[in-house]
Amino acid sequence: MRPPLTDLETHSLMFVTPRELAGYLRVDARTILRMIEGDVLYAVKVGRVWRIPITEARRAFPVERARRDDRRIS
Q1: What pLDDT is stored for residue 72 in this prediction?
Q2: pTM of the model
Q3: Which residue in 46, 56, 58, 65 has its CB near the most CB atoms, within 10 A?
């Protein structure tokens, strides 16, 4: 079994499924599929399953890291 997708920046696999990316982003998998079908997100179809290159996932969903100062609550 594949490890869960927990970080786009350090994920070791080259491809993720729409379901894995949807789980990471906490959206419905259909949202990811609509993005693929609308040419917003690049993916390749292997058999019956779409695969999204991890580099494409990083491009489409950039992760902004909060600075330590931004996390303080006044």
Answers
A1: 54
A2: 0.75
A3: 56
